[in-house]
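Sequence and structure are no longer studied apart. To make this concrete, we show below a single chain and its fold as tokens.
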Amino acid sequence: MCRHLAYLGPPTTLASVVLDPPHSLERQAFAPKEQRHSPVNADGFGVGWWVPAVRAEPAVYRNDTPIWADRSFPSIAGVISASAMVAAVRSATPPNPVEVSGVAPFAHEQWLFSLNGWIDGVWEGRGTELRRSLPPGLDARIRSASDGDLMFSLVLAALPTGADLADAVGRVVASLAVENRKGPLNVLLSDGHSIIATAAGNSLHIRSSPGSVIVASEPLDERSGWMPVPDHSLVVATVDGATITALSSPP
């Protein structure tokens, strides 16, 4: 399990989104209010952001220590600005190991991905079965034992079929939901221009204002405008607004 967020809007520091709000992602790491399956998220954290003037691929900072124990991150987070970012704090689902390669966000080309949940049976053969369904290149990009990294490759595999980002995410979540009745599948996917997210078994909220949007597991503050996303929903958000639709039924 984890808590995660994605931001699009005017350039702002990483700290202003991840560390500074009253109920920041850092606070959600040790005192989440709406997390349903674990009390803390102490198994690492990560932040990814885009600098289009430098390159199309995002930069990523990840650590397998709790976010509150990393003494270097606040220093850099206060001086790095971005107009798009994805961040997560992790509670590793047993028997997932606590290691930096398993910490979201996972990166591939222009995309960043985070899973708040787990794939049932991934350690009892389901993971091997799913990896065998992947094209060789997408199987090879998986660098960890994390089911989040595996799920990211499943989403990427859906893109060459002609699906857009939202279709790919919705299709994969719906397919996995057939055998994932007890496990949440909240995901975040972004290319730095749009955010695709699901509320599927755990909390998700959105705050949209002219020129900016935040999608987060929990509201970051008490300001008005935060809207809970209904369970079993798909969110598509840009700086121009957001749409929320029902996830497709499992095939």
Observations:
- The chain has one domain: 2-246.
- DSSP finds seven helices and 13 strands in the chain.
- The mean pLDDT is 91.
